[in-house]
Amino acid sequence: MTTPVTEPGLRLTVLVGESDSWHHRPVYAEIVHRAHAAGLAGASVFRGIEGFGASSMIHTQRLLSLSEDLPVAVVIVDAEEAVRAFLPEIAELTGGCPVTLDACEIVRSPGIRGDQG
User: Fold this and answer.
1) β partners of residue 60
2) pLDDT, tens digit (0-9, with 9 covering 90-100), for 30-86
3) What is the C-alpha to C-alpha distance for residues 40 and 79, in angstroms, rounded to an integer?
């Protein structure tokens, strides 16, 4: 059995509303496309089922009148230098949105690239 190799990384999480847009495009999609263009290892978007933000209004799937603006998390993991270099690329998109950075370990299995999912 081969032991996976780990390396330090940085996880960037941007929390936006599903209806937030940038030039008629969802903010989450714009972040993903900019991450791809910047050559980052990968980005994923996760749609929340319930949450609240600065407005203190709870958005949930259970109430049809509020279901169009569910919380969305965009998560990007790569080497620290790459993630920090990417921050200016999304600064105009994230004004007022919570943005977090977390140290993490990236697990690399021999022969498997990080873009499998």
Assistant:
1) 50
2) 999 999 999 999 999 999 887 776 666 666 665 555 456 788 999 999 999 999 999
3) 9
Single pTM value for the model: 0.82
- 47 burial (CB, 10 Å; 0-12 / 13-18 / 19+) is exposed
Per-residue pLDDT tens digits for 5-23: 999 999 999 999 888 999 9
**Residue ranges in the chain assigned as alpha helix (H):** 27-37, 80-90
User: Taking the CA of residue 55 as centre, how many other CA atoms within 13 Å lie in the half-sphere pointing to its CB?
Assistant: 10
- Contact call for residues 44 and 73 (beta carbons, < 8 A): no
Structure tokens at 93: 């998109």
Check: CB of residue 3 under 8 Å from CB of residue 107. Answer: no
Residue pair 83/35 in contact (Cβ under 8 Å)? The answer is: no
For 86, phi then psi, to 5°, come to -80, -25
Q: Rounded to whole angstroms, what are the CA distances from 95 to 22, 48, 53, 64, 104?
A: 12, 20, 14, 28, 25
